[in-house]
């Protein structure tokens, strides 16, 4: 498992290894498969972060509206 802090470094090393293989004549398909996988996982992580932030803000305002009337009781 790759930690959050090392996520970018992990992929830089992975691409570096693949590029070295390309120089040795390994197929370009392997490079593109890593690239596509990286882009998809980065896209998913990015949108999950946005969704989490949106939900945090949404819940803050919803809970504030629910709790305020209860404090008057």
Describe this structure in words.
With 73 residues, the chain is an all-alpha fold. It has one domain (7-72). The chain is 85% helix and 0% strand. It contains two helices and no strands. It has helices at 7-23, 28-72. Helix 1 runs antiparallel to helix 2 (28-72). The protein is rod-shaped, with a radius of gyration of 22 Å. The chain starts with 6 loop residues before the first helix and ends with a helix. The chain crosses the membrane at residues 35-63.
Q: Secondary-structure map with pairings?
A:
Layout: H1 7-23, H2 28-72
Helix pairs in contact: 1-2
User: SSE order in H/E notation?
Assistant: HH
Fraction in helix:
over 70%
Distance from N terminus to C terminus (CA atoms, Å) equals 49 Å
- Mind summarizing the main beta sheet? none
Structural class by helix and strand composition? mainly alpha
Oligomeric state as shown: single chain
Q: Round the Cα radius of gyration to an integer and report it.
A: 22 Å
Count the beta strands.
0
Q: Give unreliable regions as ranges.
A: none
Number of helices: 2
What best-fitting shape do the alpha-carbon axes yield? rod-shaped
Task: Summarize, please.
The chain is mostly helical and 73 residues long. The protein has helices at 7-23, 28-72.
What are the defining features of this structure?
2 helices, rod-shaped, single chain, mainly alpha, 73 residues
